[in-house]
Amino acid sequence: MLIYVYISQLTTNVECFTLVFYHFEDSEEYTFPQFAYKNTLLRNLVLSSCQLNPFGTVNWSNLISLSLEDVKLTHGSMKKILTGCPNLECLELKTFYGINLTIEDYRDNKNGPWLEIFAPHIQKLQLLGYCGERRIRQRNVASLVTIVIKAVFRLYIDHDDEEYNLEDFYNEEQQNLEKECRYLKELLHGVAHVENLELGTGCIQDLVARFVDEDEQSRRFETHNFDCSLRHLKTINIIYFHGAPSENKYILPLKKYLLKIVTVLEKVTIDFVKMKQEFLSFPRSSPHVSVVFSHV
C-alpha cells in the first residue's frame, strides 16, 4: 500500500518519472496503478518490469517521451496508451512481449500479417532485426524526418517434404525473393517524404546478393520503376561495409539508382573509403549533393 501512495504523490506533481523494477524468478510483477494512467503533467515516462493494463482511457496528453522495457503489451493496452499520448515524439520499446503471441496460421494469408504504424508526431523511426513475414505499413507518420532501416526481409523455406527437390527449392526461392523486394518497396513508399534515410547493408545486401546473375542485379534497380520520387530526401547514410569493393558490388546498383532519382539530395555518407573512385563516377540529378566517405 505504501508504494501506491508514494507513486500517487509522485505521478500527480512531476513531469519526468522513472519506475524500474528488477524481476526475479517466481516473483510477482508490479501492476502499474490505474490512477497513474491519467496525468496531464507528465512529459517523460520510463517504465520497466511492470504490468500495464489500463481499464479505461489513458490521458497522458503532454507526454512527449515514453520508454517501456520488459513489459507485456497486448493490442488493447497498447492502443489505449498510444491513443492517450497525442503529443508523443519519442517511443522506445525494449524486450516487450505479448503482442501477436497467439496469432497463428498467417503463412497462407495472401496479404500477410501487417504491422501498422500510426504515429503522426514521431520524427525518427528505426526498424531492426529480421522481419520474416511481417509487413510494415505506415498509416500516419506525417512528421517523420529520419528513418533507419536495418531490418532484413527474409522468408524461409520449409524442407520437411520428402519429395521436395532442387527445382522446387529454386522456384520457391524466386517467389520469396519477389515478395521480399515487394515488402521493402512498400515500406519505402510509406516514407517517401522523409529527409534522412539510413540503410543498413543487410537490408539490401541480403536481397540483391541472392540474384546470382550480376546483370539481373543491375536490372532490378536501374530499369524497374519504383514510382518512388523521394522528393524531400536530403541525407543518405549507408553503413557497415566489409571487404573489398568487388565484394560489395551488389550494393552499387542501389547507390547509382538513388543518385539518379533523388533531385534534392545534399549528402551521402558511406563508411568504406575504397569505393570512392567508382562511386564518384556515377551521374547524379542533384547539383548540390556532396559525397562523404567516413573512415569508421
TrEMBL record:
<dbReference type="Pfam" id="PF24758">
    <property type="entry name" value="LRR_At5g56370"/>
</dbReference>
<dbReference type="InterPro" id="IPR006566">
    <property type="entry name" value="FBD"/>
</dbReference>
<dbReference type="InterPro" id="IPR055411">
    <property type="entry name" value="LRR_FXL15/At3g58940/PEG3-like"/>
</dbReference>
<feature type="domain" description="FBD">
    <location>
        <begin position="227"/>
        <end position="294"/>
    </location>
</feature>
<dbReference type="InterPro" id="IPR032675">
    <property type="entry name" value="LRR_dom_sf"/>
</dbReference>
<protein>
    <recommendedName>
        <fullName>FBD domain-containing protein</fullName>
    </recommendedName>
</protein>
